[in-house]
Amino acid sequence: MPQTKVLKVRVTLFCILVGIVLATVAVVTDHWAVLSPQVEHYNVTCEAAHFGLWRICTKSIVMSDRKDKSCGPITLPGEKNCSYFRHFNPGESSEIFEVTTQKEYSISAAAIAIFSLGFIIMGTICVLLSFRKKRDYLLRPASMFYAFAGLCIFVSVEVMRQSVKRMIDSEDTVWIEYYYSWSFACACAAFVLLFLGGLALLLFSLPRMPQNPWESCMDADPEH
């Protein structure tokens, strides 16, 4: 592989590595969305919540005299209680989440995120083998694995977005306001880096095309 391509591949792999870190952080953390109820009176305790793919955390916050009628922000001190979703751990209690959103949404988002991590692992194995064995052609399947991982993250983000929307629209919940938090932002950034990085890696790893009409692919510079 020419030296100019090697530099481009290394820069692309660095961007993909950042995407892998962000995707892992998004999957294992529980700050995808923050939910809060409407507060009619002050100097009372309200209950806000934040959740991710695997568990939900509620926090009891004592509201002071403020113009804002929402409960929060979530960073205020209060008693915190976290529990894994019942369909992932039957021993945990998560009735609030079970009532206010469809279980299928949570299972689908988590399963798709696991598929994304699987694609990332397979792509990383291909990259390591290509460096160790000097087999540049392995970068091509690696690029596709990374692109598929990015697409899976995107689908998981969309499923989670629909889950939050249905939770807010449900009549069984007291939560009326929401916003997406830093785990959600990590997932979105991971999608961009993995998908675009995968496509760029595929482009850079392709063999050089013939430069003249009479030059065939067999006459192109061989890969090392």
Can you walk through the features of this model?
This protein has five helices and five strands; from the N terminus they run αββββαααβα. With 224 residues, the chain is an alpha+beta fold. The chain has a five-stranded antiparallel beta sheet with strand order 4-3-2-1-5. A hairpin with a 7-residue loop joins strand 1 and strand 2. Helix 1 runs antiparallel to helix 5, helix 3 runs antiparallel to helix 4 and helix 4 packs antiparallel against helix 5.
Please outline the major beta sheet.
5 strands, antiparallel
Fraction of residues in H or I helices: 40-55%
N-to-C SSE string, H for helix and E for strand = HEEEEHHHEH
Overall 3D shape: elongated
Distance from first to last alpha carbon = 6 Å
Overall pLDDT, averaged?
A: 78
Radius of gyration: 23 Å
**Which percent range describes the beta-strand content?**
5-15%
Poorly predicted parts = 91-95, 97-101
Helical run tally: 5
- What is the strand arrangement across the widest sheet? 4-3-2-1-5
> Which structural class do the helices and strands define?
alpha+beta
**Count of strand segments:** 5
